[in-house]
Amino acid sequence: MTYKLIALDVDGTLLNDDHELTEWTQETLIQASRQGAEIVLCSGRGPANTIPFMKQMGLDGYVITHNGAVTAHVETREVIHQFALDTKGLEPIMTYCRENGVHFDINTAFGLYVDQPEGLELQVRQMYYNFLAEPLKLPRWADMTEPLAKFTAFGPIEQMDMVQREWASWNLPYYMTRSGDFFIDLMHPEASKGTALKRLADSKGIVPSEIMAIGNYFNDITMLTFAGKGIAMDNSPEEVKAASDEVTLSNNDEGVAHAIHKYILSV
């Protein structure tokens, strides 16, 4: 089978646990691109901290970001599609977070906002550093006129488990997903990596059987099941592996490169 599009999650998939893109994985993706496969990074990150990896590899095209809420062009940084959040529904969520000591951020396509960027705890500051993100101060809610892409809560696993259980009972007008052990994301109910990938593929005349997707977490399941070949990393939860066609090596063992060599470069 010839795969025309390779959809790749970033953290826990493309990058190792040190948040590095290894040389062999980079060379493998460049080689696959030269053979005609389009590389599309599909991340919970925003475009601003996803596009640099495409630039690093010398690749153009598109990135699907904010878990599918925003699709942007690499070279022009133009937002070609966006699922915007209903802002009114976020007010009780923000109140809950502030009253219960849950850190959160508000994301536009290219901006990330927090209550007090200058007073962030070391753990939170390090998290943003690892994700190449620079938090800005959240303005007055009435002044937030730019479309919102994603709301993210961040904290220890036990806290996020508790928050997820509680919010699940609220009948929220959002799509809620875990994009990592420490993150809960709220988005437009139609937003997902799978939906955005389908929209992009349709615009290019690419059918699911011509798509390979590789991911490692619950927010990747929609794209893994949409693609003709869905591959989970060995570091994935069992539910993600069960939703995939097969499992490759872990992100620390360059599983992305191994899968691409097996299904694309060796063909």
Fold and architecture overview:
The chain is an alpha/beta fold and 267 residues long. The protein folds into 2 domains: 5-82 and 191-265, HAD superfamily/HAD-like (Rossmann fold), CATH 3.40.50.1000; 90-187, Hypothetical Protein, Haloacid Dehalogenase-like Hydrolase, Chain: A, domain 2. Helices cover 33% and strands 22% of the residues. Strands 5-4-3-2-1-12-13-14 form an 8-stranded mixed β-sheet. Helix 2 runs parallel beside helix 10 (255-265). The mean pLDDT is 94. This is Cof subfamily of IIB subfamily of haloacid dehalogenase superfamily/HAD-superfamily hydrolase, subfamily IIB. GO terms for molecular function: magnesium ion binding; phosphatase activity.
Protein topology:
Blueprint: E1 5-8, H1 10-14, H2 23-34, E2 38-42, H3 51-56, E3 62-65, E4 70-73, E5 79-82, H4 90-100, E6 103-107, E7 112-114, H5 122-130, E8 136-137, E9 150-154, H6 157-168, E10 175-180, E11 183-187, H7 193-204, E12 211-215, H8 221-226, E13 229-232, H9 238-242, E14 246-247, H10 255-265
Parallel strand pairs: 1-2, 1-12, 2-3, 7-8, 12-13, 13-14
Antiparallel strand pairs: 3-4, 4-5, 6-7, 6-9, 9-11, 10-11
Organism: Paenibacillus polysaccharolyticus
GO molecular function, one term: magnesium ion binding
Protein name: Cof subfamily of IIB subfamily of haloacid dehalogenase superfamily/HAD-superfamily hydrolase, subfamily IIB
